[in-house]
Amino acid sequence: MSELEFVLPEEIEKRSFEIISRELKDRNILLKKEQEMVIKRVIHTSADFEYADTMTFSANAVDKAKALVRNGAHIVTDTNMALAGINKKILEGFGGEAHCFMAEERTAKLAKENNTTRAAVSMELAAEIGKPLIFAIGNAPTALVRLYEMIETKTLIPDFIIGVPVGFVNVVPAKELIMSTEVPHIVNRGRKGGSNVAAAICNAILYELVR
Amino acid sequence: MSELEFVLPEEIEKRSFEIISRELKDRNILLKKEQEMVIKRVIHTSADFEYADTMTFSANAVDKAKALVRNGAHIVTDTNMALAGINKKILEGFGGEAHCFMAEERTAKLAKENNTTRAAVSMELAAEIGKPLIFAIGNAPTALVRLYEMIETKTLIPDFIIGVPVGFVNVVPAKELIMSTEVPHIVNRGRKGGSNVAAAICNAILYELVR
To answer: What keywords are annotated for this sequence in UniProt (chains A, B) (predicted)?
Structure first.
């Protein structure tokens, strides 16, 4: 049986990141300085080193996301799980707010009327916030497809997209659509991702701003 | 570029599970009937087929968990993300409730006083609920260690443990401790897991009860 190690509660995260750093080195993976804390936090939340290969960043993505938060950007997610995971206290300290419209009654109603998903409707509702917007999509590829359509038709130009839905139906092409745009983004290529990954990326950016 | 496939919103999940079933077959992985929907839903939430090898079930675990929910068991989680992800509507239909004590003020206070984690304190607070309890642990190995200590000292015998914390410090041995007990459990061996996985397991059990 493996042995329990005595680690003080406040030291657990630090120790985890030391292990992640060492194992990345063992695998000869060298991360770009700007992206390092985002990728490490995603590995921390998933125990999956594959993310070191698949996480894709547009130019200066992390610096741009940090600047947006600093200027009071709001975050819009497609799941209440991601919303629960985001450190709203730090975000609110910069004047931002986190939103998820998925569980609202009007969202379900509009989705039914338009034969679309609640996630796609949520993107349209987000346009009404009237603030700089970071979209953090951890579940629904249809949210990314709708964002792409809105970008193409210039209905809404998101300031930033974190595109990490997980799954088997349309997840891969939806991510490719976002990567083909000019919108600053962090996308995880392939099937993997999730609400936990979306929240981890948001938090990595938020923690960088207060450390 | 990959092609988007047209799938009706209500068909997306069904189509995802068909792909998962086909790929499990391609990998020559045959799941036990009782465990099938739990493992498939975890793969659905993670896009990670490794779970088919590492998910560990005590004897008749899924049937036991279903019986507990049917009899009004409550679910206690160690993160608000897992709490957000659990289908509380179905759970409440059977008379149960879902709880997470992590963000409560008394939890932080007690953790500080006792130099332990909020997750460990949360396990102690759960003992006061006075209902059959399913613990769904997706984040904190210290929660599993505390549960193990409580089982050993007969302070609290959980009715069921879903033990799927993710991470690098004490996650592996904490899971082994739970697997060494007589308490019915579903545990993911190794480092992987997470709040999303904990919620997916709870939901697989809940959905089985209403389909």
So the answer is: Cobalamin biosynthesis, Isomerase
Per CB-CB distance under 8 Å, the chain A contacts of B192 are 46-48
ipTM value: 0.94
Q: Tell me if A169 and B19 make a contact (CB, 8 A cut-off).
A: yes
Q: Average pLDDT of each block of 10 consecutive residues along chain A (211 residues)? A: 85 96 98 98 98 98 98 97 97 98 96 93 95 97 96 96 97 98 98 98 97 85
Q: A163 has which bridge partners?
A: A137, A187
For residue A172, give the chain B residue with the closest CA: B2
- The CA distance from A96 to A87, in Å, is 11
Which residues numbered 140-169 in B keep a CB inside 8 Å of some CB on A?
142, 145, 166-169
Measured between CB atoms, does A69 come within 8 Å of chain B? no
Q: Which CATH superfamily is domain B55-210 in?
A: Cobalamin biosynthesis CobH/CbiC, precorrin-8X methylmutase (3.40.50.10230)
Task: Give the start-to-end residue ranges of the domains of chain B.
Answer: 55-210
Q: What is the dihedral of CA A199, A12, A18, B167, to 10 degrees?
A: -60
- Interface probe for A, chosen from B41, B89, B169 (most Cβ of A below 10 Å), is B169
